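Tokens for KOW domain-containing protein. Go.
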Amino acid sequence: MEPCDIPVRSWVRILFGTFKNNITYVLSVKDSSVETLVVRQSLPYYSDTHSPMDGRSLFDVELAREHGFEVTLSTNDQGHPVAVGDRSEYHFGCSRISFPKKWVKVAGVPSPDEVTWFAVASVDPSLVDRTLTRFSTRWWQEGDTGRICSGEFASQLARIVAMDLQCESVTVHVLTDSSSDDLGSLEISVHDFKLEFPIGASIKVIAGLDCGFQGMVISRRDDMFLLQGSDQQVEVPGIFLASYISPTTYASRADDQVRYDPLANENRLQPGDLVRVISGPHKDLCGTLHYYSGRELLVTPSVIQPKSTADLGDKGKSKAEEPDVTRGDSDVHEDSDLIQISVCMDDAIVIPPNTLQFSKERGYDVTVGDRVRVAHGPAVGVEGPVRTVDTIARRLTVLSEDGPWVSVRTHCFHTTLMTF
């Protein structure tokens, strides 16, 4: 899509500057610029030691005034409140900022994490809802059940029998209490259908802080679901859930792994997958899959060097000889300010997670001081040195990059050491 085709009331991704890689909401489009709403990573009344945990927050008029900032209030043409303070203009608590058209790119389907603050601020609720639905539909499966949201069969339970996600439609079979009353099938928009996750259903969390968590639904309150995992419970919004699909079992032999093409069936992709770029300008870069849209993958570069299939069995290689994941034909390096990169699906493969191995003679193949990365569960992505190894309890205690020690079950870790 050309810069001149940027639609109003859409999402765009910033390509350059302070807000690089941020998702913003388009308010208006001018000849050479785009007016957007941005959730700021810093606000004038927050110090570095008192800023929100994720570095973002909505502008709070009362809090700003408590810190001595002069704030004036007015309304825009639509009657929505506008706050002006510290030489900035805020709508719905988001900062209004203008960017050159060449600095932005229309975002296909942002992840729920990227639009959460806009949902909290009530910025265009209908767009937020449609965005969340578009994101979640890639995990919908034939046989999933849900409720029809509009039309003649509104509130009626139905089962998916066919999907056409490119056209954003599903064919559903309407379920009735009477087995003799068959209402047949009908085609509806994905935005008119909402999945149901009954008590006892096996699910996977596809977005949010608990992304990757797998468990069973044990209770529900409105649209919040309480999930029971192997050793803990989490509460997650329904839009972040998908029916659980048993993970692919990877063969342990190197030749079997070489022949396996994880991206051959794109429906198997999941946020949090470890990806290696095998061709193109970012060849040899590894990272975590953030989200994908069409044939485009958005990958967060990682400092972990997973074992390639060529390295299997090469036990004598030293850490110094291991290739850096950020090397290759690209200009991406560990100390780069690049947060995520865009990669064509055809240029990447999913790396099977190599978790810790156990033997009666040696215990787990990890020692105190090794740097590891959590591959699954609520602490997914945590990286740091091992402090203790508890073989009996099957747990490691690890110092995360943010400081606190965390205790995680051993099956959640990659075995590959991090390189420097």
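The chain has five domains: 3-122, 140-195, 202-243, 254-350, 358-412.
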